[in-house]
Design a protein that fits this description.
With 432 residues, this protein is mainly beta. The protein contains four helices and 31 strands. The chain has two domains: 12-47, no CATH class; 60-427, Pectate Lyase C-like (3 Solenoid), CATH 2.160.20.10. The protein starts with 13 loop residues before the first helix and ends in a 5-residue tail after the last strand.
Length: 432
């Protein structure tokens, strides 16, 4: 992953600053010049930037309506205006740094051409910094209506852009089965930020991640995930351009904060190649059911689906905290995890809104297939409905799971576990 710095220390991280301070103090006491810290000698991030070339001409903030003629009336095809705005921003990259903010005023913008919002192909451009800024959710709406939905994306970033921001925008799949964003990386595509954005309509993928490295450091804040998903809102490891599944590993650090996940059917997160994922706060609801059986998923819709894919021994870590889930029917699954190692942790979560319904007692909204190396599973201070299912896969000691200070709404601790429950421990839990 790319190195991370602190703005309060002028680009050096906290450890570098402390090391430098200690070296300076030692030099003052001995009368010697301090040696450069090892991290400063070897880290590209700690070196002073060398700026080459000339600052590009043009405005730093552009408006797709005033500058490129977009109508925003919901009827006129604004594809050309958005494509021109992106080309302008790509043309102003200077010394690998983006210099342009693209403003999208309030309105409804019809976009028929694929990749019109962002079209970076083949890794030809290595740039850091691109920002799309709307007027607010439900105020700035982008209707993506390509002629065909399957394998068609509104945005495409192939190993080109890092540090891409989307703010206060709504995205609508006006052609069922279209997808929002395809991101391919061997080290460049990373650092995406979504703030107060919304997705509605029927999508195949929200974000589809492909590649052998990075595609990491992505954050969603106060966003709403609505609509429906034939695959998943965030799918990690698409393998369209990556010929080796075993290389699909560095999918790290995804943060979802204060989300409103309220969609009709499909999966929210799907990570067959591992990942480091944190979800904090918000409400997660599947409001309907799949219209027909899916070859991959049957009739289920799953918030967190982590199947086991062939890959190197990458990080496998998931944490959910302070989230309210609604399990409205037996086909709604909170987690279905078959990772072969790592950890899964739920803290102060509640999925008991419908625990009073007749299906709840026999439902299994939390499902695990666990091998000799895990994952290790833990629930702290959670309120849980139905039963949890543990399937042992392969030899070894079997599943290791622990429930601390949890409320089991439909069963006693003795009846709460389906499958291999001999390695599951309950501490100060209350059953029905």
């Amino acid at each position: 992953m790319a190195g991370r710095t602190s703005s309060s220390t002028g680009g050096a991280d906290r450890r570098t600053v402390l090391a430098g301070t200690a070296a300076a103090l030692a030099a003052a006491l001995t009368g010697c010049e301090p040696a450069a810290p090892a991290s400063r000698q070897s880290s590209d991030d700690a070196r002073a930037p060398v700026v080459t070339g000339h600052k590009p001409k043009g405005k730093d903030v552009i408006d797709v309506v005033a500058d490129f003629g977009a109508k925003g009336d919901g009827r006129t095809d604004d594809s050309r205006a958005f494509a021109r705005a992106y080309s302008y921003a790509a043309g102003r990259v200077w010394d690998h740094i983006g210099r342009t903010v693209i403003d999208i005023p309030a309105g409804t913008y019809l976009i028929r051409k694929p990749h019109a919002l962002l079209n970076a192909t083949g890794g030809k451009l290595k740039a850091n910094g691109l920002r799309f800024r709307g007027a607010g959710k439900r105020m700035t709406q982008l209707l993506f209506a390509p002629p065909e939905g399957d394998t068609t994306y509104l945005c495409r970033n192939e190993d080109s852009w890092a540090n891409v921001m989307f703010e206060q925008l709504g995205f609508v799949a006006a052609t069922p089965g279209a997808s929002f964003f395809y991101s391919y990386s061997t080290g460049q595509a990373q650092d995406y930020r979504f703030t107060e954005c919304e997705w509605t309509g029927e999508w195949t993928y929200g974000l589809a991640l492909d590649g052998s490295n990075t595609n990491s450091e992505m954050r969603w804040d106060a966003c709403r995930v609505g609509g429906a998903y034939r695959k998943a809102f965030l799918y990690s490891g698409l393998s369209e351009k990556s010929v080796s599944h075993g290389q699909q590993d560095q999918f790290l650090n995804y943060w979802f904060n204060d989300m409103k996940v309220e969609y009709a059917w499909g999966n929210f997160l799907e990570f067959p190649y591992g990942g480091s994922i944190t979800c904090r706060g918000g409400s997660y609801i599947v409001t309907g059911r799949r219209p027909e059986d899916s070859g991959d998923y049957g009739r289920t819709s799953t918030f967190f689906r982590f199947p086991r894919g062939p890959h190197h021994d990458s990080v496998q870590r998931f944490h959910a905290e302070d989230i309210r889930f609604e399990v409205r029917d037996p086909d709604t699954v909170v987690i279905d995890c078959a990772w072969d190692s790592g950890t899964v942790h739920f803290n102060d979560c509640d999925d008991t809104a419908n625990a009073f319904k007749s299906f709840a007692g026999e439902s299994s909204p939390h499902r695990y297939r666990i091998g000799p190396q895990g994952p290790l599973v833990r629930y702290d201070s959670c309120q849980l409905s139905g039963q949890h299912s543990y399937e042992q896969d392969g030899g070894g000691a079997g599943p290791r799971a622990r429930y601390d200070m949890c409320r089991l709404r439909n069963h006693s601790a003795q009846d709460f576990i389906k499958g291999a429950g001999d390695r599951v421990k309950f501490v100060d839990c209350l059953g029905s």
